[in-house]
Amino acid sequence: MSQEFSFAFKKTLPIMTGFLFLGLTYGIYMNQLGFNFLFPTLMALTIFGGSIEFVIANALLKPFNPWLILFLTLVINSRHLFYGLSMLEKYKATGWRKLYLIFGMCDESFSINFATNVPKTVDRQGFYFYVTLLNHFYWVLGAFLGGISGSFITFRIKGIDFVLVALFLVLFISQYQVKANRLVALLGVMVGLFALFVFGAQFFLPLALLLMVIILWFAYRRETQNELNE
User: Fold this and answer.
1) pTM for this structure?
2) How far, in Å, CA of 29 to CA of 148, rounded?
């Protein structure tokens, strides 16, 4: 076992527990919607988008709208654009691994690869690769186990469709607990409610996300301009 793999495994152990549990829930959720274990496993393997996979699972039960799915994916995962900019220097010399590192970028992999001080005895490119690979593996394994175990559940689990709402509630609370993010978190609630009442339940989600992106972009531009003026 290489030093890079061992070091990456130690760093990703906390992620493993969370991903296995959440992936297990996702697999069971997909099974409850009527899909066998192949669907959550292949979606986890090829999409690897976390919350967007829950959204797509529900969308599969409705008339297929690829443009809506594309838009939701771009908006929900738009933060990855900033992750990518932050990792340009670190991923510059990764060679054949670069495409997979781009595909496998998630919040947890970004946090570890960006913040970890890699020892000189450990190859950085190998460490980045194994962190991404292990986190991806944990998520796929969790989804697979959830899909398999879900097939043995002969009764419908009431409230499991609330898992996506619960996920976003946890994310909201974690954002609100950080003092610097409270205004943004509250702004998200207000924009969401506004979009729901104005545009209706069918279209409020993509339009609320679009409004949030526009508002935050203008706020960022204004803050940048103020810094330049100072």
Assistant:
1) 0.73
2) 11
